[in-house]
Amino acid sequence: MIPGARPVTTPAGARRAALLTPGAGLYSARVAWRHSLRFRLALTYSALSAALLMLITLGVVSLLLSRMEQQFVDRLNDRADTLAAAFTNLGGGFGKSATGAGAYTLVIDLDGQVIAASPALREFQNSPYPFGTLSRVPVQGTTVRAVKRKAGNFGTLWVGLPEDDLIAARQSALSALLLALLTAPLILLLTGWWVGRRALAGLEGAANLADRLDPAVSLAPLPLPAREDEVQRLLVAINSLLGRIEAQQAREKQLLGQIVHELGAPLTVLKASLSRAEARLGDPEVARAALVADELTFTTQDLMQLARGQLELKLAWHYIPARTLRERLDRLVPGTTFTGDWDIGILCDPDRLTQALRNLLANGRRHAGADGTVTLDLRETPEQLCFRVRDSGPGLPPELGEQIFEPFVSGAGSSGLGLSVARQIARMHGGDLSGTNHPDGGALFTLTLPGAALGDDGDDLDDADVLDEPPLTRSGA
Fold first, then answer.
1. Coiled coil: which residue ranges (predicted)?
2. 295, 343 in Cβ contact below 8 A?
3. Dmax over Cα atoms in the chain, in whole Å?
4. pLDDT single digits (tens) 246-259
């Protein structure tokens, strides 16, 4: 590790978002409770259970109330039939039978006069029958249900039973039903949530494992649970998908490597020939062709960078004067305006950093046009170096956003590799690359690198070389 250089960090959120859910944010296992599968299952389970429980409870309560009602009616009829039979069989003993038979009894003669009454109804004796055709009457603050029976030759027997116990039982049953309907759904929901959480724990763990996958870092298969269930089958399917992704990546890298290899040698010969012709003839058309050859060379370098991936590349660290980097960029992208402090030193891989900045400058020149301006500003702080590339073009398309840094995404008909490779190189150095539109117009890209933090005597360089000139661009790199 080079002293003063921070470890290479690789934020993988954007790549995972592109791989797992294009155009959307990274899936999070900590989703909102109302969007979780366990909540929907618990809610469905609770609703169905509550509806079923309501129907069953309503049926049970209705059956219970009807049975209680029937028992009350049967008891009232039995008492009435028993008393009516006693009056018929005992003859003149009706008075004693009537008063001893129950609390609510009346004997009504053929003229409608009450000739005998139980103690609780003594006030109605020797007076006209007061209740008419009513089957329920209030007696001393109690609701009494009554029936009539023929009482032999004496007339009519009126027998009543209090309904207080029946009404209280009915109210208790209805209160219990209402309480069950209010509390059961909540209890079922909490129970369903707990059961669903335990049942789906394996699925949540699988989602967390899959969420941590980063094909740019590792395609190691996910561990399988011991229990053979749907979660295990899901992980087996994910592992199979990872294998196919890895095989596809290997084929793509092999194909890109072959393309770059086939293009590298002819381009090298072409560049050398054009350089000699330009030096000998000074023809502007030859110079323009040499620039095109340079463009193709950098495109092959971008393709190789994409094929190898970030982890397969090794940075060759050197400490170089910033002015040597400026001179090289001035040759590669003529017409660039350089501002800022170029008398400092830079700890970097010169070839890779040149490739990244050249991509940014070429992108700005492409959008600004021949008559536009492209400016590269360098500023140093104790923490970092900051390269700012601004052009006078139309600016970045707002609909693309961060997609401009994805491979093969372009808003100007180019290959769409330059910005992606430039960001990759910046992050390999421990820095980053961002893009936005300048308030005064045009695009503005900011490439940051960590500060070298070198001592005055250079003892901290160790593995880094101090160069006055950057090394030659790697052939086919």
1. none
2. no
3. 154
4. 888 778 777 767 77
